[in-house]
Amino acid sequence: MSESDQNESEHEPGAAEAGPEGSEEPMSEKAGGNGSQTPSTASQDREALRAYEKDLRKAERTVAGEIDPGARAMVVAVCVLVAMVSLLLPHAGDASGLDVLSMSTAAHDQRISLPSQIFVWLLVVFGIFASMIALLTRRWVLAWIALCGCAVASVAGVLAIWTRNTVGVGGIAPPSGPGVGLILGWVVAIVLTFHWSRVVWARSSYQLALEAERRQQAAIAEAFQQALRDRRDGE
Asked: Can you tell me where the transmembrane regions are (predicted)?
């Protein structure tokens, strides 16, 4: 073997050893760079999760104040229209619901009692106006107010019908029984009470979707925090 071949064979192991040593420094620098980026990335992820959860809570509060009547909106609208018509029909004798509201001469001639007046006013305020406003704005608070008012109107309607069939103080009987307008308005009050109760207590599909998404996001955030704690314990 020549002298030049021996020199080449002696230098080859050294070159092979230098290769790994030379590549070791960039790898360590790269690993150091990744390690320095991890805390900032984790902090950004936490901030993003908190911001997303805050947006979900805000959207859930907004939707919680609204109602989704669905097909019941048409039923409520028809009931409001029928309640308006009942005011034009005879409440008792020849006195209509409008006569009861204004306590005209016809209402005095029919000896309209206080329960009838209370019923008609409740029907107008809650059965017509409150129901219309709640249906247009779709606010949960207004729907709840309409529900309570219609429920009280239903009870007042029973008393109004009872007074038209009962002898008053001093043995004076009312000149006529309950009219078509009184009975129709009472039925409308009962129907509105039923449908508003279902609307108020029902949860919309959007509310349920928001709640599910919020629970899922909370589980992701909890898993993320647990992973960070496990990583710190491991270090």
From this structure: 73-93, 118-136, 141-162, 182-201
Kindly report the number of other CB atoms within 10 A of residue 59's CB atom.
Answer: 15
Q: Using CA of residue 70, residue 71, residue 73, residue 76, what is the dihedral sign?
A: negative
Our measurement of the distance from residue 71's CA atom to the centroid of its chain's CA atoms, rounded to an integer in Å, reads 16
Number of H helices, E strands in the chain: 9, 2
88 touches 99 (CB < 8 A): no
CA dist list (Å): 11 to 2, 5, 14, 84? 15, 10, 5, 108
Q: What would the pLDDT profile of 56-82 be if each residue is shown by its tens digit?
A: 666 556 656 778 788 889 999 999 999
Tell me: the pLDDT tens digits for 89-131? 999 888 898 999 988 888 888 888 888 999 999 999 999 999 9
Full DSSP string of 66-119: B---TTHHHHHHHHHHHHHHHHHSEEETTEEHHHHHHT-HHHHHTT--HHHHHH
Query: Do strands 95-96 and 90-92 pair parallel, antiparallel, or not at all (unpaired)?
Result: antiparallel
Find tokens 């107010």 and name the residue. 145
Residue 11: exposed, middle, or buried by beta-carbon count in 10 A (0-12, 13-18, 19+)? exposed
User: Residues 106, 218: contact at Cβ < 8 Å?
Assistant: no
For residues 217 and 52, the answer to whether their CB atoms sit within 8 Å is: yes
Nearest one of 191, 183, 195, 193 to 120, comparing CA atoms: 183
